[in-house]
Amino acid sequence: MKVYEKNNSVILEGVADFDPKHIFECGQCFRWHIQDDGSYTGVAKGKVINVSKDNDKIYLNNTNLEEFNTIWYNYFDLGTNYTEIKNTLKNMDEYLDKACEFGWGIRILQQDGWEMLVSFIISSNNRIPMIQKAIENLSRKYGKFIGEYEGKEYYAFPTPEELNKASQEEIRACQTGFRDKYIKSTTESVIKNKENISAYTNLSTEECIKELTKFNGVGPKVGDCIALFGMQKYDTFPVDVWVKRVMQEFYVEEDMSLPKIRKYAIDKFGDLAGFAQQYLFYYARELGIGR
DNA sequence: AACCAGGGGTCGT
DNA sequence: ACGACCCCTGGT
Question: Is the CB of A126 under 7 A from strand C?
Answer without folding.
Answer: yes
